[in-house]
Amino acid sequence: MRAVLDNFDAYLQAFGYTLFLFLVAGVLSMLLGTVLAAMRVGPVAVLRVVGTTYVTLVRNTPLVIVFAFFSFAAPDLGIRFGWLDVHIGPFDFTTFFGAAVVSLSLYTSAFVCEALRAGVNAVSLGQAEAARALGLPFAGVMREVVLPQAFRASIPPMASVQIALIKNTSVAAVFGVAEAVSQMRSFNNEFGTQRYGIALAFAIGYVLVVEVVSYFANRAERRYRVAT
Amino acid sequence: MSKTASILFDAPGPRTVVRHRLYSVAAALVVLVLVAWVLYRFGKAGQFEGEKWEVFTTPEYLSTLLVDGLLKTIQMAAFAVAGAVVFGFVFGIGKMSDHGFVRWPCWAVVELFRAVPVLLMMVFSWYAIGPSTDNSFLAVVVALTVYNGAVLAEVLRAGVLAVPRGQAEAAYALGMRKSQVMLLILMPQAVKIMLPAIISQCIVALKDTALGQYVLAPGLTAVSKQIYLEFNNRVPTMLVVALMYIGVNLLLTALATWLQRRYVGEKRVLQVSAAGTADQTTI
User: Fold this and answer.
1) End-to-end alpha-carbon separation of chain B, Å?
2) Smallest CA–CA separation between B184 and chain A, in Å?
3) Does the CA dihedral A147-A151-A157-A161 come out positive or negative?
């Protein structure tokens, strides 16, 4: 523990990277996941097939391979993140960070899509039929009846997906982002005798972040629960 | 395009069907262009040259890939899942104990290991055992065991709670003790409900073995690294390795679906959130 307390700024900075990765990839994955979910529940057959294929492939590929793709293969496609060169305070957001954000977002969006789709499927067909019977137009059926229930039903699985994203940010350590796990490994290299304290300190950091997110998710779930 | 109503759309009429066909054609064109562009760029970068793929038709390398790569990966996942099932049973039952001094420590262990990234556990156990390549295998197995075990503990709890209440009540009425109710009545039914969820957890374990790369573990990622360093064919190797993972995982998914149909019926697969909910129910 001593090692972490003496280098507390390094510890905080490492979790700063973790949080930045989580926030940026979290927002992007929700956007992309919504598009994918729309493709998969929409009426256009080709888009449904594309969405399904994407989700199946990405869900069954290890995140490390997705990361590796954006580190090694994407440059051959002309996709490089060399243009990314932002510095805020002690944080540097460069090539590695860009690749990490894109990998995490693409990977997580497959799971976001499934969470949303589960939410849509949780609404019973009779709800929409009743709304149509009342004479609501398509937009009205969506806005007033289907989507509110679908969003509410998808809060718990969506929270699980986003919490998994927090933990998945650790994979960025393998690909050169100085986030928490990578910092933990370098602490372990420097202060080999204190590994229990170091692991505990970093575990506490993750537990705190996860508990904060799940606290808000639980509150939202309770607040917006659909009566059944 | 099937002509049925979904929750979002009514059954389409003739004009809408024509419109949807047009959208389909347009979407197909966009997708084709995108795929063609990717293939063209990879081709231009020389990734489709025969020599880069030749490795994967050479029996010697193929057997290395399958034995040192896939087999080791599956071994790590299998050991981890076997350990995780034991861990999950111990702590899952512990979490449902009537005694607070058993319940709360089990709760804490499960919560801790579920909230901590697998990679952190891997790095920790690697340094704890001794950071050398000989110990990587064990480190990966230990990390995956505690993480998946913590998740399976929740699955077990959900499975036991999914057994109708009357079953336990009837058993108590017959004069059974708590341990008898759990072992003879609840557990056999819960295990049946849990099976698909356990197989899904195998997929998670298998995918997470790829993280072992960070602690120099053997397996597919290690073998692929040797191959692409030797032949300078990163893209083909990556594609082959990804396809191997996807293939095995799809087989596991099919198994889970079959078990679901065979043993659980129309009920949904057990969904367990990644962060615990606070409610503690005891049987």
Assistant:
1) 49
2) 33
3) positive
Q: Looking at CA atoms only, how far is residue A191 from chain B in angstroms?
A: 11
Q: Which residue of A has its CA nearest to B220?
A: A65
**Amino acid code (one letter) for B213:** Q
pLDDT tens string A95-125: 889 999 999 999 999 999 999 998 898 888 8
The closest CB to that of A76, out of B7, B210, B235, belongs to B235
| Cβ-Cβ contacts under 8 Å, A62 against chain B | 207-211, 221, 245
Q: Indicate the helix (H) or strand (E) that contains A93.
A: strand A91-93
C-alpha–C-alpha distance, residues A116 and A135, integer Å:
26
Residue closest to B272 by CA, chosen among A121, A157, A220: A157
ipTM: 0.86
Instruction: Compare CB distances from B28 to A41, A46, A123 and report the shortest one's residue.
Output: A46
Q: What is the 3-state secondary structure (H, E, C) of B139-176?
A: HHHHHHHHHHHHHHHHHHHHHHHHCCHHHHHHHHHCCC
Asked if B120's CB is within 8 angstroms of A203's CB, the reply is yes
Torsion sign (Cα): A94, A98, A104, A109: positive
User: DSSP class of residue B269?
Assistant: P
What is the nearest CA distance from A49 to chain B, expressed in angstroms? 10
Tens digit of pLDDT for each residue in B139-171?
999 999 999 999 999 999 888 988 888 999 999
Handedness of CA B94, B96, B102, B107 (dihedral sign): positive
Distances (CA, A) of B64 to A65, B58, B61, B67: 19, 10, 5, 5
